[in-house]
Specification:
Shape of chain B: globular
Helix content of chain B: 25-40%
Largest sheet of chain B: 6 strands, mixed
Organism (chain B): Streptomyces malaysiensis subsp. samsunensis
Mean pLDDT of chain A: 84
Shape of chain A: elongated
CATH architecture of the largest domain in chain A: 3-Layer(aba) Sandwich
Oligomer: heterotrimer
Number of strands of chain A: 12
Structural class of chain A: alpha/beta
Structural class of chain B: alpha/beta
Mean pLDDT of chain B: 84
Chains: A alpha/beta (about 350), B alpha/beta (about 500), C mainly alpha (about 350)
Pfam families (chain B): ABC_tran (PF00005)
Distance between the termini of chain A: 27 Å
Number of strands of chain B: 24
CATH class of the largest domain in chain A: Alpha Beta
Keywords (chain B): ATP-binding, Nucleotide-binding, Repeat, Transport
Order of helices and strands of chain A: EHEHEHEEHEHEHEHEHEHEEH
InterPro entries (chain B): AAA+_ATPase, ABC_carbohydrate_import_ATPase, ABC_transporter-like_ATP-bd, ABC_transporter-like_CS, P-loop_NTPase
Distance between the termini of chain B: 67 Å
GO molecular function, one term (chain B): ATP hydrolysis activity
Number of helices of chain B: 17
Chain lengths: ~350, ~500, ~350
């Protein structure tokens, strides 16, 4: 699926309307600026991006090292999505957690003159400069999840909602424990130095404030790894012989947490996960463990980012909205996956 | 102000200095006075307190009690920097140079010539070159790395560093130990220059003849006290000095062979067959019989130590081979050499032979562990018993094999090394400077031990810088010069003068 | 004087003594029972031991304080069998790694690759292909991977002349990379029941978790090897003075190779234990084990420069760290406080030792 790089052309009429593939959270369609020349908004719908091949777009993709289930899913989603479009060439770099290395990789992509960049920075703040550089070079940047320090460094940001994740987890638990007096909740957080962990905890705490009968009695931070999940959960279980609900920030460390729960022989509480691993969804569907729900932090955002990049490269907007342009930022909803709706989300689960 | 008259007070007066370490009273009320412009020699056995005393002078140790006067004024030398500020410099036996820095950088280490934090390296090099010229070594490049210099060269750098300060007292701890005779002469010339300029030198050496040549007064230390002060260095009889050091009359005596077995007829245990190492020594043939001590005489750099290390497998020969009992050794393997029955007492005891953190027992048993083990399991009872026996056999003092080896004097540390090979049951003993850093009294004991080991059937190959030692101890002597054996003769047919003549006479071309 | 009468041969003397020279009779070399040192002669030895014990004692003291604090703040949760099992279980994986690291440090080396080796071994041992072979396959695979990495480390260091720091740093990077490549960044969940059951309470024998038993066994064997065998002696000897050890006839290179093999073996065993504990293999396993293990060994009293090592101290060090984590978690203190305390304890322990060792 190698396509020649193409310079921006102006006319992009006659593009067919298409619907977003399953898993994309919004329908991709577009109107180009040029479409406005017609002055005919009714045509807008007919000029949205579709699955049918359009102008060839070279998309550069730079992500961190996929040493974690979720990040791995991000890479896969991006690559799979790009493959679905015959008009998209994806130039994906080796994932790197090293800021300097990632900057170098992105600069290479800029020099190669890709049409659009999708960047999931190892460190959003540290990579802001290279984002600015790309934008100045006329390459629109889709900033994926970890946000750059300056809005000038990206054309569009798309990412998850960490605060919303905590909020929805808290709400779900609150509803489940409604009417129960002196209900106790504990939290198994992710890496404490990360801002996202603090945001998740904040959302969780804010949600719980709505339920005066619930008290958060314990919290420990693991490291998004199975090993730390097991270790910290074992300690939490030892510290709290009796509680009603547990929110675990991350399904990957949840493997360890559930192992610790099994080792402690406990099943007297409900557990809510985070991120949306396939394994967790399978367990929710089977309904034979303490895990009753998980709050999404959808890796499908990478696929959506490819959609956005393609639309940007082809000079179109998003369908389904009245806007002529692609929005500057898109915050995804952290849905709560339970037994009732798990079938709907299972295809997006990552392993 | 009128010009000050010559100060009648001594430069440095130390009185009733005491210093204790856990379990040891290193200094027990030492007195010492040093006049400006004199060479004051400090004598004493190892453990007499010399090292501790000079460390007090250098500010490296704080005395527990006692008084130090500098030009009549009480002072506390609370750090080496404080001592340096007064004008006291110390040249330690273990040179304290930074090998990765250049000569000039070493000389001005800690008091760099700098402007606003930037080192003026050109000025430092010029100044260093001047100092080196003054020391008789203008050929040393101030920009060279110290690690690339010979031991003698490093000594010169050390001295240049001392002189880079405005120095009034220099302490030299066995400065001649690593030097060739030429270098020693140069050293004495420098000492003479310094004293002529009014600088006092405190000189420590085990070599009495040096003290005779340059010393003015002698202070003898024994058991942490001054046994005698202010002796005339040139005229006090040797006997008297040795007696003061040891508390008994010690002959600088070499034991005679006790077994009558004729060496000539015995089958050689060690044979060097055309053994050579290009650039270090020329191929050599040699046979050593059980009970025989063969001495290698020559200057530093004549290839003596290199021969020993090549025989031992620590260096790989470029020609020839080593045979023990007629069987050739795998070359370049110490393990093979030890297995075949070789043992080495290396020149640098602390760096090359001893496990300083360990007890005497463990130092003795390290080469014989398999003897006390079954299936890798060490029988510590048997190990201790055997080590104890060897320690007793060699009259190691103190008679406690569980003591950490670092608490022993140099002579007893050497005995621990010999005990290692005794326990191993080795057949060929290679000795490199066996009495370096060992005091006179203990030397005689070591000589007796070495002779006895030979009499009991070991073949001994001995290297020493001290000619009397080689001539007195060995049965046969090989004289080396520039990597070549220039003469071989029974020791009784040689004397110091004739050997020295062979060693220094230019080779016929 | 050298040829002292030997007395009767000691019965326990090794059967095969290399033929000694004429220097000493066999009997005098072996010594007799009468030569066995009596109490008086061992006093210095005892003092040495007392010193070693004293160093451990300071850690025992720290541990006692921690237990007292735990008993005071959370009597019900802390002072319970469950919690003892928990603390020991959590200590066991890193404990086994630390035993191996203690040997390497005692020999004057360093092994920065332990965490990466644990990760690689745990990932390799939990691939679907390996899991087909069941418990035995997983264990064997973990151990072989550990030994393989140790072999590479050892050959590079002993025979390739590489500095241990660099060689094991390279191994750290490449083993982690390989672990990532094999697992593709995914968590490999174990489905072999025999393995999973080992980590569950039903498999506890007399209340002792199997993992803790492995830890205890490794500790005892490690102690014996370091203190009672020729291997241990040689380890200490090359750590104290490698040149002297070489000139004393010890095959230093071979010994070094064996030491890194040993460290790899411990990592393999630890990886298996981690698989049992977490029921999975992941390339992020063993994160920062190298620092935890080195820290535990050092606060235990093993010299970073080599020449002195103590398994007891290392295990105490691990227990101190694990107990702190437990104590803090029980009191709901967060990781920031835990990290600060960990740092403070490392500094304090090393200062205490320094105070003891300098006169």
């Amino acid at each position: 699926m190698r396509y020649a790089k193409s310079s921006s052309t102006t006319s992009r009429r006659n593009l067919l309307m298409g619907t977003a593939a399953a898993g994309a959270l919004f329908a991709a369609g577009c109107t180009s600026n040029e479409n406005n020349d017609d002055g005919d908004n009714a045509e807008q719908a007919a000029n949205t991006a579709s699955d049918k091949p359009g102008k060839a777009v070279a998309i550069g993709f730079a992500g961190p090292q996929a040493d974690h289930g979720w990040l791995n899913a991000i890479n896969e989603q991006a690559k799979r999505r790009a493959k679905e479009y015959k008009d998209v060439t994806l130039e994906a770099t080796e994932g790197s957690n090293d800021t300097a290395q990632q900057i170098g990789q992105i600069e290479t992509l800029i020099n190669k003159k890709v049409d659009v960049l999708v960047i999931l920075p190892a460190d959003g703040k540290a990579l802001t400069q290279v984002g600015l550089k790309a934008m100045r070079a006329g390459i629109p940047v889709v900033n994926l999840d970890r946000i750059f320090a300056s809005p000038q460094a990206y054309r569009c940001w798309i990412g998850g909602d960490n605060y919303g994740m905590g909020l929805n987890a808290g709400r779900y638990i609150g509803e489940q424990l409604k009417g129960k007096k002196n209900a106790k909740v504990i939290e198994l957080a992710g890496i404490d130095n990360l801002e996202l962990t603090r945001q998740r905890t904040e959302g969780f705490n804010d949600a719980l404030k709505n339920y005066p009968n619930i008290k958060k009695v314990g919290r420990q931070a693991a490291e998004f790894t199975v090993e730390s999940g097991q270790a910290k959960m074992a300690q939490l279980l030892q510290a709290h012989s009796d509680f009603d609900a547990l929110w675990n920030h991350d399904d990957d460390q949840g493997v360890g947490a559930e192992r610790a729960i099994k080792q402690a022989g406990r099943d007297d509480f409900l557990m809510v996960g985070g991120a949306g691993a396939k394994r967790a969804m399978d367990a929710i569907k089977a309904d034979n463990s303490v895990l009753k729900a998980t709050v999404l932090y959808p890796p499908t955002m990478a696929a959506s980012a490819i959609d956005l990049a393609r639309a940007l490269g082809q000079g179109k907007g998003v369908g389904g909205l009245a806007e002529l342009e692609i929005p500057a930022s898109l915050t995804l909803y952290s849905a709560v996956v339970t037994k009732d709706n798990v079938d709907e989300y299972l295809p997006t689960g990552f392993s | 102000m009128a010009p000050a008259p010559p100060d009648p007070r001594p430069l440095l007066t130390m009185s009733a200095i005491t210093k204790s370490f856990p379990g040891v009273r290193a200094l027990d009320g030492v007195d010492l006075d040093v006049e400006a412009g004199e060479v004051h020699c400090l004598l004493g056995q190892n453990g007499a307190g010399k090292s501790t005393l000079i460390k007090v002078v250098a500010g490296a140790h704080q005395p527990d009690s006692g008084e130090i006067l500098w030009k009549g004024t009480p002072v506390t030398l609370k750090s080496p920097v404080a001592a340096m500020r007064l004008g006291i410099a110390t040249i330690y036996q273990e040179l304290d140079l930074v090998e990765g820095l250049s000569v000039a950088e070493n000389v001005f280490l800690g008091h760099e010539m700098a402007t606003g934090g930037f080192v003026r390296s050109r000025a430092a090099r010029t100044a260093t070159a001047a100092l080196l010229t003054r020391l008789g070594h203008p050929e040393i490049d101030p920009g060279r790395l110290v690690g690339d210099l010979s031991a003698a060269g490093q000594q010169i750098v050390s001295m240049a560093r001392a002189l880079s300060h405005d120095v009034q007292l220099i302490v030299m701890d066995e400065p001649s130990a690593a030097l060739d005779p030429d270098e020693v002469d140069n050293l004495f010339r420098i000492v003479g220059d310094l004293t002529a300029a009014g600088v006092a030198v405190v000189y420590i050496s085990h070599r009495l003849e040096e003290i005779r040549r340059i010393g003015d007064r002698v202070t003898v230390l024994k058991d942490g006290r001054a046994a005698a002060r202010g002796l005339a260095a040139r005229t006090t009889p040797t006997r008297e000095i040795v007696a003061l050091m040891t508390g008994r009359d010690v002959e600088y005596a070499f034991p005679r062979r006790t077994t009558a077995a004729p060496i000539a007829t015995a089958t050689p245990v060690l044979r060097l067959d055309n053994l050579g190492r290009a650039g270090e020594f020329e191929p050599i043939d040699l046979e050593v019989a059980p009970g025989e001590i063969v001495g290698l005489a020559g200057l530093v750099g004549s290839g003596r130590s290199e021969i020993l290390e090549t025989v031992y497998g620590a260096r790989r020969p470029t020609s020839g081979r080593v045979l023990v009992d007629g069987r050739p050794l795998r070359t370049g393997s110490v393990t093979a050499a030890v297995r075949a029955g070789l043992g080495l007492a290396p020149e640098e005891r602390k760096a090359q032979a001893l496990l300083m953190l360990e007890s005497v027992t463990r130092n003795v048993s390290v080469s014989s562990l398999t003897r006390f083990s079954r299936g890798g399991w060490v029988d510590r009872g048997a190990e201790r018993a055997a080590a104890r026996r060897c320690v007793r056999d060699l009259s190691l003092h103190p008679d406690d094999p569980e003591r950490p080896v670092r608490t022993l004097s140099g002579g007893n540390q050497q005995k621990a090394v010999l005990a290692r090979w005794l326990l191993r049951g080795c057949r060929v003993l290679l000795l490199d400077e066996p009495t370096r850093g060992v005091d006179v009294g203990a030397r005689a004991e070591l000589y007796a031990v070495i002779r006895r080991l030979a009499d009991d059937g070991m073949a001994v190959l001995l290297v020493s810088s001290e000619l009397p030692e080689v001539l007195g101890l060995a049965d046969r002597v090989l004289v080396l010069r520039e990597g070549r054996v220039v003469h071989t003769a029974p020791a009784r047919d040689l004397d110091e003068y004739s050997v020295l003549d062979l060693v220094v006479t230019p080779l016929p071309t | 004087m050298l040829n002292q009468p030997g007395g009767r041969p000691r019965p326990a003397a090794p059967a095969e003594v290399p033929e000694p020279t004429a220097t000493l009779t066999k009997e005098s070399l072996r010594g007799t029972s009468a030569d066995r040192p009596k109490t008086g002669g061992r006093s210095a030895h005892d003092r040495l031991w007392a010193l070693a014990d004293l160093r451990n004692l300071s850690l025992v003291g720290v541990l006692a304080v921690l237990i007292a604090v735990g008993g005071f703040t959370k009597p019900d949760e802390f002072l319970s069998t469950d919690n003892l099992q928990l603390v020991l279980t959590q200590a066991s994986v890193i404990g086994v790694v630390t035993v191996g690291v203690t040997f390497v440090i005692t020999s004057g080396g360093i092994d920065l690759s332990v965490g990466a080796m644990v990760a690689l071994a745990s990932v390799w041992a939990t691939t679907l292909a390996t899991q087909d072979y069941g418990l035995g396959g997983i264990l064997l695979c973990a151990v072989l991977v550990g030994l393989g990495c140790g072999l590479v480390n050892g050959v590079l260091i002993a025979y390739g002349g590489m500095v241990p720091f660099i060689a094991t740093l390279a191994m750290l990077a490449s083993a982690r990379g390989l672990a990532l490549q094999i697992s593709d960044g995914k968590t490999q969940v174990v489905t072999v029941d025999q393995v999973l059951d080992l980590g569950l309470p039903d498999s506890y024998i007399l209340g002792i978790p199997p993992l803790v038993m492995i830890f205890a066994a490794v500790t005892v064997v490690g102690w014996l090897v370091l203190n009672r065998t020729t291997f241990g002696r040689r380890t200490v000897a090359i750590g104290g003075n490698a040149e002297a050890a070489r000139l004393a006839g010890i095959d230093v290179k071979r010994q070094r190779l064996m030491l890194y093999l040993l460290s790899g073996l411990c990592c393999g065993v630890a990886a298996f234990m981690l698989v049992v504990l977490t029921g999975s293999g992941q390339n992020t396993n063993g994160n920062l084990y190298e620092l935890d293990a080195i820290a535990a060994a050092i606060i235990g009293g093993t010299l970073l420069s080599g020449g002195r090592g103590t398994i007891t101290g290392s295990v105490l060090g691990v227990l101190v760290f694990t107990t702190i984590t437990n104590l803090f978690a029980l009191n709901n203190l967060q990781s920031d406080v835990q990290q600060i305390a960990k740092g403070a304890i490392i500094v304090a322990a090393v200062l205490v030792q320094k105070g003891r060792s300098t006169p």
